Amino acid sequence: QIRPEEAMIFFKSPQRAALISIISNATLTTGKAGVALLSGSTAILSEALHSSLDLLASLMAWVALKFSASPPDREHPYGHGKFENLSGFLEGLLIFGVAAGIFYQAGQRLFHPVPVRFLGPAMGVMGLSAVLNLLVATYLYKAAHRFDSVALEADAAHLLTDVYTSVGVLFGLAGYYLSGHHLFDTIPALLVGVVILYTAVKITWKSLTGLIDTCLLYTSDAAD
Predict the structure, then answer these.
(1) Cβ-contact 43, 169 below 8 angstroms
(2) What confidence tens digit (pLDDT) does each residue in 179-217 have?
(3) What separation in angstroms does the CA of 199 have from each of 71, 98, 168, 214?
(4) CB of 169 within 8 A of CB of 47?
(5) Could you give the C-alpha distances from 68 to 61, 103, 206, 216, in angstroms and in order?
């Protein structure tokens, strides 16, 4: 249960929560991209793409929250809340594209493996990514609950997925370190793609049902 004094400190506005997510994702995207270039790891490259998508999603959520906070006007007599659902729907479509790119890159490396270098820094970045994303995702989920924000909930879902994939890649790199087999780098990348694909379906569907007022239809059916 969130106490009022805690809410004043940590949840001043949904826009602030989205801004914290933007800063976190920008930091992780830069770190993962740098390590991916140095190490040549397909799994870390997939994670860098994943984090870049999270960054874009956070930016879209921030913009959507700015619009949705606008008061009702003549053209939008019921307010601008649907901007959040639209943002979540577009985020889902973008995730489909990233999943396709990851499958392509991982498929290439299956037949043309590349040795992974700088395993120590690579594993360190993955561990840091998992911890930081877990903290930010928890914060965003609480903010989404407090402000009833679809955009923040979608952003939190992205980051929580990143926690799982980062841990998976970390174990894959450990396996590569012990065995030297390239499949320990490639298979986690494919698994990241599967998880991202599942997230895309989930977020797109939830946002779409919000856009077409599915909840209102269910309420009407129940009343009948």
Answers:
(1) yes
(2) 989 899 999 888 888 888 887 787 777 767 766 555 544
(3) 31, 11, 16, 20
(4) yes
(5) 10, 35, 18, 19
